[in-house]
Amino acid sequence: MFVREIGVPVTRLKGVGPATAAQLARLEVRTVGELLTLWPRDWDDRTREQSFSAFNAFPKITVRAKVSAHDWFGFGRMRTLKLVLQDSEGVLAELPCFNRPFLERQFPVGSAVVVHGSFHWKYGSIQASAFEIEPEEEAESKVLPVYPLTAGLAQNLLRKLVLRALSEYGKGIDTELPEKVRRERQIPPKAEVLRMMHAPESLEEADKARKALVFEEFWLFELAIGKRSLERRGKLPGQGDGTASSGPGFTPTPLQSALLQRLPFALTEDQKSALGDIGGDFDSNIPMARLLQGDVGSGKTLVAFMAALRAVEGGGQAALLAPTELLARQHAENSSRLLEPLGVRLAFLTGNLKAAGRSKLLAELAEGKIDIVIGTHALFSKGVRYKNLRFAMIDEQHRFGVLQRSAIIEKGTEGDPQRRPPHLLMMSATPIPRTLALSVFGDLDVSVIRTMPPGRKPIITHLTRHGNEGNLYGFVGRELAAGRQAYFVYPLIEESETLSLKSAAAMFEHLKTRVFPGYPCALIHSQVEEEEQRRIMAEFRSGAVSILVATSVVEVGVDVPNATCMVIEHAERFGLAALHQLRGRVGRGSLQSYCFLVYAANLTEDAKARLKVMHETTDGFVIAEEDLKIRGPGDIAGIRQSGYLAFDLADPLRDREILEDARNSAFTYLLEELS
Ligand code: ADP
Ligand code: MG
């Protein structure tokens, strides 16, 4: 039987009455199986004895010592005992015994003890803030599990119950991993792994057990992904990724050639190889599910347009979904410039489209009079019908949840469930480390654009301390005088009463009237009306506006190659991913561009680390890795919230090496089993 299948109620265990059962239920523990898989959140190592002098090196230490004196402090009812201990190296420590006057009798001067606790330097001595003390002869040297607790349930009781469950039910537990895999990875049988988790002999053993469980969890997950992928398209995910020239190679179709001829530049090698991968998907008759990864400014849009042409030539319709109005509009403008002259029929659909225009557009979509439609999530809302949606592109896909993906697939098969789902191309500039992308996006294929279009100069990044903006404003002024444009980004739209931060609205006034009076300035943020946003962006793109003051609405996708300065004030308030995206708004042409990060005094350690990374590198993949280190197993670009990652003990961010290993192992197993 697998451990989770042990459905015996915990109340069968000796020592679990109704009260304890209720407390356990609050930890979601109702069966013995659930009790055995209530994982310790940490372990307390009492096997290694230290001297008090090590107090600073560990959060908690275990010390063998002698009581050298009883001391008292405070007066009257506040009078409190203090045990003075001396360890074998002669180092002294003091234990204030609040509410524990009975310790005086229990530990007379001269008695030998073992104390375990966290110690600090306070009032000129080493003092314990929290401790457990035992007579030396009773002290057991052990590694104790520390469980997540609910009020009223003591660690000691929980430890006892788990051990009882282990000894009564441990024998019959089977391992979920195939025997062969388990042996290969030298993973002990499941019952032994559980013992190592709940009653380890050393921290190393506990860690080994945790890793074994993580491996198992990932392995089973990857096995499921591999199976699904084999069913969908007869191969495993990751086979034939577009990173090398493994793809079928790219031969443009007539419409694609026509577009290429209109461009003032050639495709980069990576763009070609991505298009090769995409062409292969179209040819293969298996619904495409591909992630196109490429750093900001690497030219993903063009790849999407080219792919859309291919779908249109095949007689289908294509849809391009963007996360913001602003970005959708920009794509619409680019496509009308690039694609309309080729005779492609385009439409732009957002939630704000007025009723009359909307119903006309919807009718045309349903009749197949529109080839490519571009818009926000409105593209896939109810009431929108496609004649023959064959290809859907999602820009900045990390901004969307899992739901959209299935909504899109449904649109493609609406009215005719027999029809194959549309090809799906997802674009992301969030450089998710590769392993993560694979686990997060399941069975997606991945194409990567690694090299930037030629002629780009690396952006020069300066850190400027709050109060020294004078020089930087001067610098930006000279760029403006040379005909360039600049962004100024702020964390807030308007002044806030609680936060003393510069706001976009206030700084807009200041920059316009005081700092750069000669230059046209505009203000854009999420509360500006759509019509107005559109006018402003058009003016910024045409160069009629020189300075765009904004919040992070300009973070995704905006593409104005003549803008060479990105000034981010209160840069310490932005996350690494956002800073990288914002910086990516400049350096999009052949002009030298600059990014100024203005930061306030009293930075937190994390903020310091983020700014340092931004200063040192412009490589999105490096930044993503650093982000991972700084935030630890936190959230990367909202992935965690997206609901993709629902593991029990495993953490794809922290445990990504195990993830990779488990994936390889599971896929090898699948292939061997099939052959
Ligand atoms: P992103 O990958 O961030 O979406 P875009 O698609 O917005 O990047 O492209 C950034 C800029 O690079 C655009 O101005 C685009 O016209 C330009 N571009 C795209 N491909 C090439 C290329 N092969 N050579 C030169 N410039 C290119
Ligand atoms: Mg883009």
General description of the model:
The protein is of the alpha/beta class and about 675 residues long. The chain folds into four domains: about 1-45 and about 145-175, Orthogonal Bundle (DNA polymerase, domain 1), CATH 1.10.150; about 55-140, Nucleic acid-binding proteins (OB fold (Dihydrolipoamide Acetyltransferase, E2P)), CATH 2.40.50; about 255-450, Rossmann fold (3-Layer(aba) Sandwich); about 460-615, P-loop containing nucleotide triphosphate hydrolases (Rossmann fold). The chain has 21 helices and 20 strands. The strands form four sheets. A seven-stranded parallel beta sheet has the order 10-11-9-12-13-8-14, with helices on both faces. Strands 15-20-19-16-18-17 form a six-stranded parallel beta sheet, with helices on both faces. Strands 4-3-2-5-6 form a five-stranded antiparallel beta sheet, with no helix packed on it. The longest helix has about 30 residues, at about 205-235. It is globular and about 95 Å long. The model is unreliable at about 240-245 and about 635-645 (pLDDT under 50). Adenosine-5'-diphosphate binds near residues 301, 429, 453 and 559.
Question: What is the structure about, briefly put?
Answer:
With 675 residues, the chain is α/β, with parallel strands linked by helices. The chain contains 21 helices and 20 strands.
Topology, number of strands: 20
What would CATH call the homologous superfamily of the largest domain?
Answer: P-loop containing nucleotide triphosphate hydrolases
β-strand percent reads: 15-25%
**Oligomerization category of the chains in this entry:** single chain
Q: What small molecules are bound in this structure? A: adenosine-5'-diphosphate, magnesium ion
Helix content: 25-40%
